Amino acid sequence: MALSLEVRKALPGFTLDVAWEAGDEVVTLFGPSGAGKTLTLQCLAGLVRPDSGRIVVNGTVFFDGALGVDVPTQRRRLGYVFQGYALFPHLNVRDNVAYGLRHLTTSTRRERTREVLERLGLADLASRRPRELSGGQQQRVALGRALAPDPALILLDEPLSALDLPLRQALRDDLRAVLAEWRTAAVLVTHDFTEAYRLGDRIVVYEAGRVIQTAPRAELLWQPASERVAGIVGIRNVLHGTVLKATPDRIQFSWRGQLLEAVNSPTRSYLPAPERPLAFFIRPEYVRLIRKDRGSPDPGHHMNLMQGRVVGEADFGTTWTLYVRLDAPGAPAQGEYDLEIEVPRLVYEILDLARDRQWQLSIHRGSIHVLPSS
Amino acid sequence: MTRRGLIVLALVLAVARAGEAQPAATTLVVYAAADLDTAFREIKPLFEKATGARVTLVMGSTGNLAKQIEHGAPADVFFAANESFVDDLRAAGAIIPQTRALYAQGRIVLAVPKKSAVAARELTDLLKPEVRRVAIANPAHAPYGRAAQEALERAGVWDKVKPKLVYGESIRHALQFVETGAVEAGIVALSIADAPGIAYAPIDPALHAPLNQVAAVVKRSPHPDLGAAFIQFVNGAEGRLVMKRYGFLLPGEF
Amino acid sequence: MDFFPLWLSLKVSVTATILTVATGLPLAWVLALKRFPGRDLAEAVVVLPLVLPPTVLGYYLLVLISRQGAIGRVLDAAGIELAFTWRAAVLAAWVGSSALFIKAAQAGFEAVDRRLEQAALTLGRSQWSVFWSITLPLASRAVMAGTVLAFCRALGDFGITLMVAGSIPGLTQTTPLAIYDLVQSNRMAEANTLSLIAVATVALLLMGIGRLARLRF
User: Fold this and answer.
1) pTM of this prediction?
2) HEC profile for B61-122?
3) Which residue from A320, A324, A323, A317 is spatially nearest to A347, judged by alpha carbons?
4) Disruptive mutation site among C82, C185, C196, C215 for chain B (greatest number of B CBs within 10 Å)
5) B55 → chain C, closest CA residue
6) Which of A134, A166, A192, B94 is the most exposed place for a label (fewest CB within 10 A)?
C-alpha cells in the first residue's frame, strides 16, 4: 500500500495545507483538536473536496485538482471508522457488518460476514442492535464493518476517544492487534500522544492546519524537529541555554550557571555560533540521582553534575515525579523548579526521598537532546 | 381488533361503493340559483319521470355559478336569478342565445327566527338596537343580495344597517344564518323562506329593481335539446304549478 | 342516503396522498440535504398553499387548468379533462396537503445523523441506495406522521376543491362539499349522518394504520 497526499483547503477562519506520504503501515495523524486531522481524513475519503492538491492511493489517483479528477466516495473503497462509530441503529450487528458487501453473491456475503464476526469475537452478538452493545463491542463492530469489504486502507477518526480511560488502554491494544492481524494499512487520527505512539508506525504531527513533522515514531520521541513539536508531543524539560562551543560531535553550553555538554544531533549538522541561544530537552527518566552511600561522584562516569533540592513531588503509582530546584542563583527555569525527574517507586523508597531532599544529579551527555531552532 | 377494524372498514367501503352514481340514462346537469333550491327539488323528479333522463342539480349563488360556467364547468343549462349574469355569458359566447328565456320573477322577504324575541316586520325595524346582525346574500354575485341592498337603500336605512350586515355566499347561506339564530334578521328569497323555524314578512317589490330570472342552455352542452326541454318544462304547465307554490311570479303575470 | 361523496372522498384522498408522497419525498430530501441558490425561495413556495386562502388558491389553479389556461390548453389538446372532474379534486387535495407532508418529511431527514450517510457512502453504496437503506428508514416516523397529516388534510379539503372541481353531486361533490350542501339545504339529519359516518371511517382507518405502524417499527 502506498499513499501520497497533498491537500489544500480553505475554510472560514482556517486553512489546511498539508503533504505527506506513507507506505504499508499504520500512520497516525497527531496534534491538538482543530488542527485539521479529521478534515484530512474526510478529504482522503472523498467526503470533502479539497481546493487543490493530489491524493494517490496504490497508484490510483483519487483526487487531482489540476486535472479535475475527483473519484466519488463510494468508488474509493476505503474503510472508515467514524468518531462515535456511526453504527446504523436500525440494523443489527450482522447487517451492519454486511452493509458494504452488496456486490458479493448472497452466499459469499454470508460467508464473509460470518468470518468477520468470528474473527472479531462478535458471533454471539450478531442479532443485537448497536444500542445494546458496550463501547468496546461497538468499536469492534465498526471495525468489522469497515474491514469486511477488504479495503486496501482503513481510516480511523479518534477511535478511542469515545471511551472511558481504563477501557481505552485495553481497547488500544485490541485495536493494534486487529490492525496487525488483518495487515491492513491504516491512517488513524488522535490527539493523545500515547495512542499515536502505541498504534502508529509513523506519526504525522499537525498544528493549525500544517504538518510540522513526519517521522517514524521513535524518531519523534528522540528527535523532535523543533521546540514546537516537542511541546505538542508533550516532552518535558524543554529548556533554554546559551551556546559556548559547538563541534560536529558535541555542544558545550551554559544553563542556569551550569556548564553542560550534550551530544550533537547525528542526523543533522547543527553548529550554532557561541553566544547563540540553544533549546534542548532532557527526558525525566534519564536524570540520575547520585547515591550517597557510594562515595563521591566520578566525573568520568557521572557527567553534567549538578546539585539541587527536591521542592515538589507527585505520586503516579508505579513511578514518582520529582521537581528539583538547582542550588544555583537566579530564578528556576520552569516556574518553581528547574528539572522534572522521574524515578521508579522502588528507587523513591530506597533513597528515602520522602525525607532526604538534597541531592546531586548526573545526566549523560547522550541524554541531553538538542532542539534545532525553527 | 385490527382484523375486526379492517372488516368494518371493508363493509363501509362496500356500502359506499354501492351508492356510487350509476348513470343509466342521459344526465342533465342543471346549474341553478340558490333561490330555486326548494322549487327545483320538486320539479326534478317530475322532469325525470316525464323524460326518463336523470337530473343533477348544482345550486349556488348566480355569480359563482356563472363564473364556473365561464371556466368550463360541465353545466348543460343555467338558471340565473337575474338577467345580467346570463347576458354576460352571452357576450362571452358561453350560451346558446336563442335559448335565453325568462322563467320567473322573484320576491324578497324579511325573515326572522320564529322563536326570536326580536320582532322585525318592516325594513325600518332593522334599525332597532336589539337587531345586532342582519344577513343578506353577497350583493357582488347574488342577485337577491343586490335586491336586498337596493331595498335597504330605497327605504333609507342602508347607512345605519350596513355595519350590521353579514354576507352569505348565497341566499341559502343567508337563510342558514337566520335559522341558526346567528343573526337576528335576514333578507332572503320568498321561495325558500318557508322553512321550519322561520317567520317572514314581504318586502315591497317597488323598493328594488325587478328580479327577472332568466335561463339559457350552455353552448358546450352535449345535449342542448334536453336542456331546452328542461327550460320548457319549467315554463310549462307542471313546472309553473310548482313555481307558483313557492311564491314566484310567472311570465305573463309581470 | 347517498354514499357517493364518501366513496369519492376516499378515492380522491388516497390518490392525492400517493401523489403527495411520490412528489414530496424527493422535494423534502433536496430541501433537507442540499444547499443551492434559491433554496429559501423554494421553501417559501412549498409553504405558500398553507398560507393562501383556499378560495384564492383555488381560483389561481382554476385559471391555470381551465380550457383557456396555460396548463388546461395542453391537457385539452391531449384530450384530458381536468377542471370540474374528480381529477381536479385530486389536484386540489394534493396542493392543499403537500406542504404538511414535505415539512414533516424534511424535518425527519434533517434529524438523521449525516455521518451515518457518510459511513454508508464509504461502504460503497450509491446515493440512491443510501437514501432507501439509511435516510428513509431512520426518518420513517416523521414520514409516516406527515403522510397521515396529508391524508387527513386531503380528506377535509373544501375551498380549493369547490373552486377547481365544483360541487357537482355524483361527480365531484366530496364529503366536505356534500355535508356543506346538506346543511345549506337545511337537511340536518342527513348532514349529521354523513358527518358521523365520515368521522367513523377516518377514525377506523387511522387506528388501523397506527397499529400497523407500531407493529412494524
Assistant:
1) 0.78
2) CHHHHHHHHHCCCCCCEEECCCCHHHHHHHHCCCECHHHCEEEEEECEEEEEECCCCCCCCC
3) A320
4) C185
5) C169
6) A166
d(CA B171, CA C92): 26
Mutate to test the interface with A, among C112, C122, C132 (most CBs of A within 10 A): C122
Q: Which residue of B has its CA nearest to C181?
A: B59
Q: Which helix (H) or strand (E) holds B145?
A: helix B143-154
Burial A234-252 (b: 16+ CB within 10 A, else e): ebbbbbebebbebeeeebb
Distance, CA of A263 to chain centre: 25
Q: Per residue in C106-164, pLDDT tens?
A: 999 999 999 999 999 999 999 999 999 999 999 999 999 999 999 999 999 999 999 89
**From the list C116, C122, C126, which residue is nearest A88 (CB)?**
C116
Widest pairwise Cα distance in chain B: 68
Q: How far is the C-alpha of B64 from the C-alpha of C62, rounded, in Å? A: 13
CA angle A162, A166, A172 (to 5 degrees): 65
The amino acid occupying position A170 is A
Assembly ipTM: 0.85
Q: Are B180 and B188 in contact (CB under 8 A)?
A: no
| Cβ <8 Å between B71 and C212 | no
Closest CA to C179 of C206, C158, C163, C151: C158
Helices (H) and strands (E) in chain B, counts: 9, 10
CB contact under 8 A, C123 and A76: no
d(CA A184, CA A151): 8
Tell me the Cα Rg of chain B.
20
Partner-chain residue, chosen from C123, C137, C138, that has the shortest CB–CB distance to A99: C123
| pLDDT by 10s per residue, chain A, length 374 | 789 999 999 999 999 999 999 988 999 999 988 899 999 999 999 999 999 999 999 999 999 999 999 999 999 999 999 998 999 999 999 999 999 999 999 999 999 999 999 999 999 999 999 999 998 899 999 999 999 999 989 999 998 876 777 778 888 888 888 888 888 899 999 998 888 988 989 999 999 999 999 999 888 888 888 888 888 888 889 999 999 988 888 899 999 989 999 988 766 677 888 888 988 999 899 999 988 887 777 777 778 899 999 999 999 889 999 999 999 888 998 889 999 999 999 999 998 988 999 999 999 988 898 887 65
Query: How would you classify the pairing of strands A185-190 and A26-30?
Result: parallel
Min distance C17 CA to chain A CA atoms (Å): 26
Residue A231 exposure: Cα atoms within 13 Å on the Cβ side: 10
